[in-house]
Records
---
Amino acid sequence: MFQRFRRTRLNKNLRSLVRETHVRVDDFIYPLFIRSGENIKTEVASMPGVYQMSIDVAIAECEELKSLGIYSIILFGIPDTKDSIGSDSLCEHGIIASSVRAIKAAHPDMFVVTDLCFCEYTDHGHCGIIDEVHQTVDNDATLEISGEQAVIHAKAGADMIAPSGMMDGIIEVLRDSLDKAGYENLPIMSYSTKFASGYYGPFRDVAESTPSFGDRATYQMDPANRREAIAESVSDAMQGADILMVKPALAYLDLVREIKDATSQPMAVYNVSGEYAMLKHAGNANLIDYDRVVMETMIAFKRAGADIIISYHAKEVAKLLLASSK
Ligand code: PBG
Ligand code: ZN
């Protein structure tokens, strides 16, 4: 005897009752790119709908986000000056510290996550201090200044720190630095399994962080490695990460599931710039039903095990969810 699977598909209400996975507006963290100045809102050609903005514009943007039900953001800074160690990110008056202070003052109810890395702040565009001899990022020298950056973010009022540089041992170092500075309750969301990916292309346009030489393959992961991907996240969990992440999302959903099953921390996915750009441009070219494909993609993240979705689509999703609840 065969099972009549279609029985539970024939009625719309019943389909809702038996639906296994749901996307909610509170699953989302929305990325913002902030630079100095006033009244700046510059669209990024490769990512229609995504802007570099000045702090005043970001504050207005938060008002709109809240009206859509989005209360979590992750900040990326574009400094005026870059140097070999990314000094702007280590300064209380740097772009990120200033942004966090201003946004939290205007919107104390906004949950402000900071991306902790050096690539946006260094003149060479790599995610840490360069070891000139080996022409790569010096892991342990970068760890030392990462602790400083974390405390700068914490003092500015960040609600969660998200290290994205893929330095070994960084979670232990950040936890220790934060604890020593009195921030033992500040959570760390680790970009724990982050691949060296072609999908970051448009982000590097908006964050102005393309490496001036080489690539990030000496610190970000090889897309071919499954067991190493699991070990990376497990290691960060053991070092004290509060939330784990897989990045990019779409091409790595097998690992979202495996890491989710291998750990007990909440899981985030970063639905990266190239993934956004693909759908956006395909939608604009009328090649796909954009809204439908966006929601299908978000459901796929949740089904794979993501608890949190960092996405440039967050505002669109919020609007679609509002429309569908009417
Ligand atoms: C910086 C960082 C990157 C992204 C988030 N943090 C880029 C990179 O590693 O080159 C990518 C985000 C995106 O593509 O949307 N370490
Ligand atoms: Zn980086």
---
Amino acid sequence: MSIGNKNNYDVIIIGAGFGGLYALHHFRDKMNLSVRAFDGASGVGGTWWYNRYPGARVDAPSSPFYAYTFSQELVDEWEWTETQTSQASVRSYLEHVAKKFDLKKDIQFETWVTDASFDEAKNQWIIQTDKGESISSQFLICATGALFVANMPDYPGINEFSGECYHTGRWPHEPVSFKGKRVGVIGTGSSGIQSIPEIAKEADHVTVFQRTPQYALPARNRPLTTEELNESRANWSDLRKSMRHRGGWPFKTVRRRAADYTPEERRAVYEELWEQGGIHLAINSFAGVMAKKELNDEVSEFVREKIRETVKDPETARKLMPDYYFGTKRLILDNGYFETYNRDNVSLVDLREDPIEKFTRSGIVTGSGEHPIDMLVLATGFDAVSGSMLQLNPKGRAGMSLKEKWDVHFDNYLGTAIAGFPNLFMIHGPGAPGVFFTMPLGGELTTAFISDCIEHVRREKLGSIEATEQAELEWRHEINEIANNTLYPETDSWYMGANIPGKPRQFLGHLRGSQYFDRLDEVARSQDGFTLQ
Ligand code: NA7
């Protein structure tokens, strides 16, 4: 084992969420490298450390698959309890993982990395922390989180608001009481849609400020049975392979051709899938829903009908009608979201027809007047995928900053390496499958790739590995081509960077996760697209 001293390691990892924790375990325990990890939070979890708002859950019927896959022992000993895992449950699981693999001793918590610069003469990264430390390593792993930098709206007077104010992505650790309060919630993505029903159960009144109505589908969350858990444990190695080859989830998808069905028969299929749970409608209806406009329109209309049937007040139902292509914004699994609008203490403001003009000390003023509130909940999302890397803003060759490099396009190679930034690897960077694949497994597979690259450099006694600009260019075309053959680019979403004013418009994911990881395997063997020296 190469032992690092206090100031120099083989590998520095930034972030102690799913990606960073696994990377630490892998590099330290499987590759015998000296590793130090840093995280600004006081504990493990990354995104799951911060997003502890009421109702926070994985946005998929996740258990036991939204979890690490590499250890049968871990799979056998962890008791998942519900199909749609709660934030508290994910956090307990990650605490357990950290303890089981003795990870915390190599993580420096409550420490922000304030700078990271590449020393070309020594082929090393030097990081500075807010504790005044300067530490170096040959390799820098950025597990900084795809959903980390909170998007804070910039409405006139918002800082004058004198009531309590919380962003869902920075929720306090102390309990927040909504009792007797008038709560304003801005944002109806996953975080808004998961939290609004919970807040409404306790608050005096909830006013939802909605910019874009959403296609939320029933989560049908339920207890996971012992038989189900044991069955997946018994077949874990096959399930793991299925996940790798079926886009991150082991579920068998039915390949149906829309043309083989009459409209009435298709409708019956949608109904059946809806009853099974929204995820089935999302992944299992007909081939081409995400690429063919007419077919997509049909599913969109089906969901709109369901919303109309659920929401009693026709005017509220009208405002809740989504009008973009189904699935082109992150699909949301809800637990009673639309039903919440039938409560007397919930009202909806459609910001597209009644925009926010300003905040006062005690409320929000829209075109129709003032909405007095005691508490503001900002469920306004994140500067997703690229935001955490830009916040870190590493400096590569010749001192070039990532902000300069990514001024107009988030160029990189394979969603993990960046030309001009040798020996730096991202986990879930722009263009990686990220949220289009099961993220814990995606992190494991990406780490395996990075590990092959590091192994290669060390075996050959080289100093650095760096993506070429040509490889970046080809990669840019490759991921854009995949996205451009779908309806995703037609919609303003965080997938496209459209939620952040001024952010370059670029599809931020890779839609074919299994193919992507095949590609990583190929490149791990060939080192194509990299310069090694
Ligand atoms: P999202 O999905 O980005 O949702 C944010 C919501 O906030 C969305 O409804 C936005 O409307 C709205 N928003 C953002 N900025 C504003 C302003 N300035 N004014 C009004 N409304 C605004 O974030 P979440 O936290 O819900 O979920 C992120 C991911 O976490 C999710 O996709 C899952 O993968 C887990 P818009 O739709 O942009 O018009």
---
Amino acid sequence: MKISAIRVYQVDLPLVEGRYSWSEGKYVEVFDSTVVELVTDDGLSGYGEVCPLGPFYLPAFGPGARAGIGELSATLLGQDPTALGPINQLMDMALLGHPYVKSAIDMACWDLLGKVTGKSVCDLMGGKFGDSVTLYRAISQRPTDEMAENVAAHRKDGYTRFQLKVGGNPGDDIDRIHAVADILTEGEVLVADANTGWRVDDAIRVVNAVRDRDVYIEQPCRSYEHCLTVRRRTSLPFILDENIDGIDALLRGHADGAMDVINLKISKVGGLTRARQIRDLCVTLNLPMTIEDSWGGDIITAAIAHLAHSTPEWLRFSATDFNSYVTVRNASGAPTRTAGHMKASDEPGLGITPDMAVLGKPVAEYT
Ligand code: MG
């Protein structure tokens, strides 16, 4: 089997809540998602998606994804998409870095491998653990009262895990954490994610002021070293996200005792192949994971479900159903949230069928 054509689609994904806001005043109202279709010489198509969280969250942006796929197209045409090791090596040889560009391509290769073998990506990744995957809900940064109200509203959707977007003014963030901790009920989990937004002194003020609350602190500062300083000044459980961008960072963090949980985003590490490597290493290290991506629609939500559902429950901290945050459905067959949980499809590959009317005409085609 060979890749005979690569089609690239651009899809806008507006938010149900209108706006998603996080640290340092950053926000997105319409996500710029890229879908890649790998067409093979025997008539199959595999699909992948990449959707950066705006251009200022990680070093990634929508037009960059599309330009990068174009850059890789000549390398990919004629290659066997089911040979995931060689495909990833070829992409790394042709384009240094740019993991998010490679993520959608690698995802489409997994979709094709599943279609060829008749197995779901979840089964190819080791098989299902448990009936379903527990989801968390990100609570966009708003005034304190609104964030507490939004937690209460999302609790009605069945969510039991909430990730507060902090990383703003430390005094306001202390109020936000207390206000939500006050209304938590038995069994619910609270994370305060600063998304690199605090200076070290800000972060230390916050962790000291909430030291007696049941809350995880996620990625307080931009640099790993600053996060480690904060980590050593608090007894609260600690999550690293933006700094854990590959196996080297994971091993360093593990050796330093820098975190209790990591956030594993598929496109941050270059696709499902690399995410699975990191997932498997975390299983060996007994390190829990939130499994997700930077953002996405139905195709990314399906990919998250396959990776998360094939991860032991004991080490599955949470996952994300991005397709319930946005107003546009770019594929059918993706998981839909039921009582705060989702399941990976048993259908071959990712188990999704793209909605070609939503994808529209390709913005680029390489043959
Ligand atoms: Mg995070």
---
Amino acid sequence: MKIKTIELFVIQMALKSPFLTHLGNVKDREGIIVKVTNADGVSGFGEGVAFSTPWYTEETVTTCLHMLTDILIPLLQKNPIKHPDETFSLFKSIRRNNMAKAALETALWDLYAKDHAASLSTMLEGTRSVIASGVVVATDSTAKAIQQIEQYIEDGYQRIKVKINPKQDVDFLSEIRRFFPDLPIMADANSAYSLHDLERLKALDEFNLMMIEQPLAPNDIIEHAVLQKQISTPICLDESIVSFEDAKLAVELGSCKVINIKVGRVGGLNEAKRIHDYCYEKGIPVWCGGMIEFGISRAHNIALASLPGFTIPGDISASSRFWDEDIISPEVIVKNGVIDVPVTPGIGFSINEKRLQETQLCKKSFAFS
Ligand code: OSB
Ligand code: MG
């Protein structure tokens, strides 16, 4: 791929409104933008989606910066590759650190697609020209949730996800259902429950949810299988699935009926596609998860969600869901509940250089010989 330079930009942006879960409150989003430039001056972009603290997975912005700077970029400097797929074996010698790996791997995919004058969707064998868009409501106020849902329906979103936990579930969902009896709703627990809460979880069946996402702990693969036998609401796994092997195990054991695929969580587009292909073959529907991300990661998600197995609207919302001004141009927009899949080379969005500049905390450069 004749890489000439890699640049890392650490950026920070305030969310329009706080994103509240039982695990914490995100008000400001830090992220890492990876820019890989080849000898012809073509640049590919990726985004590190780890948060500032390890509340969602074990990685943070700082651990990703370390992994990229001291491990992954030096590995690539020593081992030139011809195709982004080769990072799969190259990164195999490094345990976990999936979001750091994905940040670099996705940039290489964008560069590779641009270099071949193909859209990233085409490169990944996507089949959709538009993808269905869903959105997440993350607040501890029922009144605010109802207000936000009303707005999001007006904006055209095809399904709404709400965050739940044992202190905010039955009454919360009853009230939402009272206002929106037929709305496609799913609930994400981010591991707020254990099997001791079996009766509470059974009680959620009456709300006709599309699914319940990650009710139990990330390692509770067996417990999720036990739970799925006792509830009629389909279980969707998020935090539990960090690899192809995890997906296989969960499906084989009956721990879930749906999988949320996040590129960062599973270590890149290659692994995301492997999980997709397996689920497609097994008839397990998948959807693309979100990470309160900036436009680069949003663009990679759009390309991934154009694959045929992504039959459920994911957490891919408009740039304006979280940001006053995104770092890409044009921004991601939702129209009639869908997002257009770009047909121009690579991710199909340009960088908003002014915005990248004004949100930048620091920058690092690496030269390749
Ligand atoms: O559990 O899906 C999750 C955001 C950050 C971390 C974890 C999760 C989320 C979301 C998606 O719910 C939010 C979004 O980007 O739309
Ligand atoms: Mg989730």
